[in-house]
Amino acid sequence: MAWVESIQKAIDYIEDHLQEDLTMAVIAKQANSSEFHFQRTFMILTDLSVGEYIRRRRLTLAAKEITTTNCKVIDVAYKYGYDTPEAFSKAFRRQHGVSPSEARKYVGKLTFYERLKIQVILKGAEPVKYNVIEREAFKIIGVKKEFSYANGENLIGIPKMWDEANDNGTSSTLFKANNGQIKGVLGVCAATNQTQMDYWIAAEREGDTPEGYSSLEIPASKWVVFEVNGAMPDAMQKVWKEIFSEWFPTSGYKHAGTPELEVYPDGDPFSPNYYSEIWIPVL
């Protein structure tokens, strides 16, 4: 359960410092995690970026102060990190649907977000199915793009990247180029630095790299391979949540910090019988 406690410690740190400048480096340090993996874990568990959670909580507390005290709106704006009343008013209206001055007059309903509490969910009815394998280093070839975690850029950009790959024939080409042990097209998530990630649409390949494609070596690892059964993208998202909310907290394993793989075999990804996999490197 130490893993869950570490995540909660970082959330509690955020809550205790909402009126201060918060950096991802310091937040992730509370969880004994890299910035990259903390942000990724947080997003999988909550469907929110860390930045979005902080923004929502600040605007929630700001709304409470505006509606329950006589503090000046400009003072509340500065208190919660907004440089100008205009920026604060715009953000406030986006969340609450009314301006700060309207909120003070009790016009409209406000949208409050409570602080997060991470809990382990133990389920026996639908166990997560997986097996553990070890592999030497292998090569993937494909296309990649760099995404930032800021404002959920990766959540918006990665689905568009898949749409492009399916429309322009990249996915079909990668299926044909695949001659490695992992059969299918891969979605590969790899950290480039503490605030950005490379996302690859790729295939395992031995030998030459076709023109127009890049290559990446996946390091030797112990892998936990999780079964995913069902239509995309819901089935994949469901298993990711189960891994981080149920499996990791009780497994005794730690993430190795190297790239993760989503494996999409040939077939109809929208079929309720579609089979795919998640590969996570562990220690």
Key structural traits:
283 residues; alpha+beta; Arc Repressor Mutant, subunit A; Multidrug-efflux Transporter 1 Regulator Bmrr, Chain A; 2 domains; eight-stranded antiparallel β-sheet; 21% strand; transcription; Cass2
Walkthrough of the structure:
This protein is an alpha+beta fold and 283 residues long. It has two domains: 2-104, Homeodomain-like (Arc Repressor Mutant, subunit A, Orthogonal Bundle), CATH 1.10.10; 130-282, Multidrug-efflux Transporter 1 Regulator Bmrr, Chain A, CATH 3.20.80. It has ten helices and eight strands. It has helices spanning 2-16, 24-30, 35-46, 50-68, 73-79, 85-96, 100-104, 153-167, 170-177, 234-251; strands at residues 130-135, 138-148, 185-191, 196-204, 214-218, 221-229, 260-264, 275-282. Strands 1-6-8-7-3-4-2-5 form an eight-stranded antiparallel sheet. A hairpin with a 4-residue loop joins β3 and β4. α1 (2-16) packs across α2 (24-30). The longest helix has 19 residues, at 50-68. The radius of gyration is 22 Å and the shape is elongated. The two termini are 16 Å apart.
